Amino acid sequence: MVVEFADSAKLAVEVNRRRNFAIISHPDAGKTTLTEKLLLYGGAIHEAGSVRARRDQRQATSDWMELEKQRGISITSTVLQFEYRDCQINLLDTPGHQDFSEDTYRTLAAADNAVMLIDAAKGLEPQTRKLFEVCRLRKLPIFTFANKLDRPSQEPLNLLDEIEKELKLATYPVNWPIGTGDRFKGVFDRRTRKVHLFQRSRHGSKMASETTLDLDAPELLELVEPDVYQTFRDELELIEEVGSELDLEAVLSGELTPVFFGSAMTNFGVQLFLDAFLDYAAKPGPRTARTGSVDPTHEHFSGFVFKLQANMDPKHRDRVAFVRVCSGKFEKDMVVTHARSGKSLRLARPQKLFAQDRESVEEAYAGDVIGLNNPGAFSIGDTIYIGPKIEYEGIPCFSPELFAYLRNPNPSKFKQFQKGISELREEGAVQIMYSTDEAKRDPILAAVGQLQFEVVQFRLQSEYGVESRVELLPYSVARWVTAGWDELAKVGRLFNAMTVKDMWDRPVLLFKNEWNCQQVEGDHPSLQLQSIAPLT
Ligand code: G4P
């Protein structure tokens, strides 16, 4: 009994010290730079530049996937883990740039918090908005970091306004900038009511040294130009009128975002952000499963697969299943049950992932991510567990934006072609749909990023030995008709839309643009169109 109590107390301690998050941003907002600086302050690296260097080095040396080399980009998503202030922080990487794909959305299913990184000059950008919508569906707490304050940027008040109006998300500035661009002097931290003045360090490769002053310290007037100081005080007065308390409950339910200003490149505000984030961020919490809610301190291990990665290692043409641990303690060599098949599996080679390195993991707790060598057993959304049955709700299919017929020019390879398509779909590399016209039997690839098409073609060729041709379709919006086929038949022929079916024979409408989609939505509300597929 004593042993059991000690175990459950340790479990609670481990869960409480975990913080897990993903960064949502548009390319070039500074995700790589901020990641690097968080690692620098978190003590995981000692000199910034190494993440980028590793990335570049990987591009130079990796031969595991020709495509990666050809395109000069990284397809591998990783989980970065570091300890800071007694907390174990898990940063889930969300592939961006050209490697934006459904994996980016799925990673958010495994995250407990999101950091919304915005370029303070550009404000909200398309990829950020899309990812934000996924966070909103999950009611994830969102922490905003307005970056690049060292460059001319929008008025901070305008940025808040944009977030509030466009995302319908309340804001609470945790710090406030003193000047922007060339005259950016630092930030005022509303938590401690101290002004932090920063010195520029070259590209911020080492931690920045900083001076901390009281708000009313006379030196401040000497160090900051009078007009910059005055604007800062006026703005501060304005934001403090609204109220000085941060409503943490609203943060945790995703209704209010704490906002931080800074400059990742020069390290301004990064540590303040990290410290506040650790205090406010959601710890791993209970998760909804089909079998009921599961507490992270539940005595038995459980987790779900949110991503499958093929061919990470050139020496073994393997697949890695990334599992988000949701409850209990994970141990090496554990025998778990695979909920979908009911089969037992021994998890013999678990891996923790830091960039491209693989390190064996001995134990893991809720909030952690482990990489399992996948002998083909796993699909996206699968649950593994110990003890009484647990089955998590799965991960929905997100609205694809690119559609193309995939042609097989070589009929003698029909079987391999079908096998490849079906396996790649199961793995979650791409969504597959079919025309309702029996004469058009070629599969329609449906993706959120262009790279997904290239990956499918590349892998069909290299793993299944089949050539393929992609023929783009002129659609960019998909909506599932949740009212079903009968309702769709009732509304009759729809112009400007193509009717297709997904892998579960459910009706989906493809539109050329949002405008056409909104028109059909407005004219036929009975169709109950949805941008995210209902779970199967
Ligand atoms: P990403 O991963 O979101 O795509 O962005 P990344 O960190 O690669 O940053 C994109 C560019 O923005 C980089 O410049 C980077 O140095 C710059 N940047 C990031 N944070 C800041 C900041 O706080 N202030 C300023 N002024 N610039 C910032 P680059 O020219 O593309 O690369 P590099 O020459 O710096 O390596």
Automatic annotation (TrEMBL):
Residues that, per the record, bind GTP: 25-32, 93-97, 147-150
Domain Tr-type G per the UniProt entry, residue ranges: 16-287
Function: Increases the formation of ribosomal termination complexes and stimulates activities of RF-1 and RF-2. It binds guanine nucleotides and has strong preference for UGA stop codons. It may interact directly with the ribosome. The stimulation of RF-1 and RF-2 is significantly reduced by GTP and GDP, but not by GMP.
HAMAP family: Rel_fac_3 (MF_00072)
Cited InterPro entries: EF-G-like_DII (IPR053905), EFG_III/V (IPR035647), G_TR_CS (IPR031157), P-loop_NTPase (IPR027417), PrfC (IPR004548), RF3_C (IPR032090), RF3_dom_3_sf (IPR038467), RF3_GTP-bd (IPR041732)
Record NCBIfam families: prfC, PRK00741.1, small_GTP
CDD domains xrefs: RF3, RF3_II
Lineage: Bacteria, Bacillati, Cyanobacteriota, Cyanophyceae, Pseudanabaenales
Keywords, ordered alphabetically: Cytoplasm, GTP-binding, Nucleotide-binding, Protein biosynthesis
Organism per entry: Limnothrix redekei LRLZ20PSL1
Pfam families associated with the record: EF-G_D2 (PF22042), GTP_EFTU (PF00009), RF3_C (PF16658)
Source organism, top-level taxon: Bacteria
Family according to the record: Belongs to the TRAFAC class translation factor GTPase superfamily. Classic translation factor GTPase family. PrfC subfamily.
Keyword Glycoprotein: no
Primary location recorded for the protein, binned into one broad class: cytoplasm
Protein name: Peptide chain release factor 3
Annotated localization: Cytoplasm
